[in-house]
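Chapter review: from sequence to fold.
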Amino acid sequence: MELLTPEAVRAHATALGALLVDAVDGGASVGYLAPLDPAEAAAWWAGAAGARDVWAAFGPDGTVTGAVTLLRTDTANGRHRGEVARLLVHRAARGRALGRRLLAAAEARAAAIGLTLLVLDTQTDSPAERLYRGAGWIPAGTIPEYAADPAGTLRATTLYYKLLAA
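The token string follows.
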């Protein structure tokens, strides 16, 4: 896996978009309803270039098998924190600890650039919760009916945080 430059994110936007489509098709609540148009998914990634740090994992054939983003807060009172978002692992690449490695890469980068607090949210009772809890993330609370899943059903979301060593 590698931290992509903004140019590389734009160059891989179509492949990253295909990963996002796979996540939505698989039921992940990541901001979109199914079916997600591949062009819309690619456009989101192209827009993320430069605004977020993006890591991508590639399979032996060069396909994107996973990705994660780190969004830094630019407010004066929040420069110590960041948000982990869009941790995605292609359904064909699951079960190989790729999600854990992507999350660890984002956490390591956050610590290296001086962030001391990370936050994220995920659908309550989703498989992702096991990953986050296993990686030391702490649930801060649950909000009912926070976001619609890809089928349009409102679901609860759990907010998590992790304090990083200063």
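Two observations follow directly from the output. Residues 17 and 40 are 8 Å apart (CA to CA). The mean pLDDT is 97.
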